[in-house]
Specification:
Radius of gyration: 27 Å
Structural class: alpha+beta
Oligomer: single chain
CATH architecture: Alpha-Beta Complex
Mean pLDDT: 91
Length: 311
């Protein structure tokens, strides 16, 4: 009796899932805090300048009845956002589209769309993490001296929130500032013990928050735990990784853009088919804009290590 098996016919083949999968994608948060935008822009330009009037010193000396006051000079300062072109594109061939079991063009559009958001969010993050107000955790005095034991503490959070309030920074959400911390840093914050540690208010006010591992609102800051908070590999002492935790108030970040060619978010562009046989399809994104720190007084950064980071 002759048996027909897989070696006899070509019909037994490897199967593929025709639904495309993409890389794990973190949520994008940093561009969302760019609340300050031009409202009365004079004209189209290569940059947008915001002007600040400085307040006069308090006048506490009594006036002389028979003498006029002596006028004082006003002063101002500026913040400039320079508009820069950004973009990216992918191009598929006719042969790929004609032989692939996936919808390549639709998947390319998905990849390009996320790349546009990721790129703009990274530009915003770069500005926020470059602020001049910084606190180093533990005994560190600079980024290069951050050691493995210099993890972020509740005292660091309390210090930064106090400094922002001292700077007259306005909260971003209700009565709260907004902070971005890496999950490795959040691990240390949740692990800290003591009467003032995160775990006590989490236990007594909302125990579910502790069981769910949610940092939530703490010490006047609404915390967002995100892997997009920067990790600087080997930037600290003896190859210790340094984590950047940022806390922002209202108008910490400004954003300007061309409303003619892009808008506040990148524009998706379907490229023309210019090759002789029209085989190449192009999809990309384009943005003409920029970010700048608007109020340094509304922004603080904490640089620390993590007990579960690389040391």
């Amino acid at each position: 009796m002759a048996l027909t098996g897989t070696a006899d016919l070509s019909t037994s083949t490897a199967a593929y899932d025709a639904l495309a999968n993409f890389a794990l994608r973190p949520m994008l948060h940093f561009d969302q805090v760019a609340r300050k935008r031009p409202t009365r822009q004079t004209h189209r330009g290569a940059s947008v300048t915001f002007d600040f009037y400085d307040d006069l010193a308090a006048a506490t000396t009594p006036l002389t009845e028979t003498a006029d006051v002596t006028p004082v000079a006003m002063s101002d300062s500026t913040v400039t956002v320079t508009l820069v072109e950004y973009g990216n594109a992918v191009q598929t061939t006719a042969k790929l589209r004609g032989t692939s079991f996936l919808e390549v063009d639709a998947d390319a559009a998905n990849v390009i769309g996320y790349n546009a958001g990721l790129s703009i969010d990274t530009l915003a993050r770069t500005q926020l993490e470059g602020g001049t107000n910084v606190r180093y955790a533990g005994s560190a005095t600079s980024r290069a001296t951050v050691a493995a034991t210099d993890t972020l503490s509740v005292a660091d959070i309390r210090y930064v929130a106090a400094k922002l309030r001292s700077n007259s920074a306005m909260p971003l959400i209700g009565s709260l500032f907004v902070g971005f911390m890496h999950p490795d840093v959040a691990y240390d914050v949740r692990a800290e013990t003591g009467n003032d540690a995160w775990v006590n208010p989490a236990n007594y006010s909302d125990a579910a928050r502790r069981w769910n591992g949610i940092v939530g609102a703490f010490e006047g800051v609404m915390w967002i735990e995100t892997p997009r908070a920067s990790l600087l590999t080997d930037a600290g002492s003896t190859t210790t990784d340094v984590y950047l935790t940022t806390v922002v108030g209202r108008e910490a970040l400004a954003k300007a853009f061309s409303s003619v060619v892009s808008g506040p978010t990148p524009r998706i562009v379907i490229g023309p088919q210019t090759d002789a046989l029209r085989r190449f399809n192009t999809v990309g994104w384009y943005w003409l804009g920029g970010h700048a720190r608007f109020r340094e007084a509304a922004l603080y950064r904490i640089e620390s290590a993590s007990s579960i980071g690389a040391n």
